[in-house]
Amino acid sequence: MSRNLILGAFLSSLVVLAALISFVWTPYDYAALDIPNKLQPPNVQHWFGTDHFGRDIFSMIMVGARTSIAVALVAVGIGMVLGVPLGLTAAARKGSWLDEVIMRGNDLVFAFPSLVIAILITAVFGAGAINAIIAIGIFNIPVFARITRGAALSLWEREFILAARVSGKGAARISAEHILPNVANLLIVQGTIQFSLGILAEAGLSYVGLGAQPPTPSWGRMLADAQTMVSFAPHLALIPGLAIIVTVLGLNLLGDGLRDWLDPRIRVARA
């Protein structure tokens, strides 16, 4: 087992554990205002200090982890559930009008980054975590469709697929029974990468006010609130920034480690 996998799993587990614990316990009420104790640096009572409203930053980081993970997880789930079948269908119908429609549709979505999609959605439905999920999820669909199609195309000419076709199995059954299990490892690795990108996207959307709305804490909005106070309270920006860095680094290391662990060719090359 690689060091990347171990370190990535450790860092990711810390963030997930903090999010899970926040459901039942935080050191302080993350929404409680305590103006007399505002802008305190990290100390014994408030491990990460307090913000400009006197709220405990450690508690807000814990709940913010919950928000970021929930948004990214659901968004990646949307991308997988819709993108993988589209990719399998496009590969099974390579060169047909259906393949062309699916891939040109993917190109169209790629032309609009998640932030632009979020702006369009929030202009109609308003800002919020649900709309951030939809925006990030829509952007993930073509990612998984392309990854799935590319991996599936290399399998459709393999001998075991030809044997399945000779036995009378249709394209849909072959895709479900033979193609999908053989591309699952790649999709798992890509899922961890998109998860980390989803964390970044959620933070970016919250930073510009399009993500989770107050009083729900969000790492991106904590950074936005801190930008005018960095000179005299740097911990307000440093701590949520480090939380984002640790989470994204952990997930990227986890994805890299999973790729090495799940790909037998890499294991043999390193043996």
How would you briefly describe this protein structure?
By secondary structure, the protein is mainly alpha-helical.
**Major β-sheet annotation:** none
* SS class: mainly alpha
Q: How many separate domains make up the residues?
A: 1
How many alpha or pi helices? Answer: 10
- Provide the CATH architecture: Orthogonal Bundle
Uncertain runs are: none
Mean pLDDT: 90
Distance between the termini: 11 Å
* Radius of gyration, whole Å: 22 Å
Order of helices and strands: HHHHHHHHHH
Percent of residues in β-strands: under 5%
Per CATH, the superfamily is MetI-like
The shape, in one word, is elongated
Q: Do you know the CATH topology?
A: MetI-like fold
Work out the helicity level.
over 70%
CATH class: Mainly Alpha
Number of separate strands: 0
**What assembly state would you assign to the polypeptide chains in this entry?**
single chain
Notes on the structure:
The protein has 271 residues and is mostly helical. It has a single domain (3-270), classed as Orthogonal Bundle (MetI-like fold). It is built from 10 helices and no strands. α1 (3-21) packs across α9 (235-262). The mean pLDDT is 90.
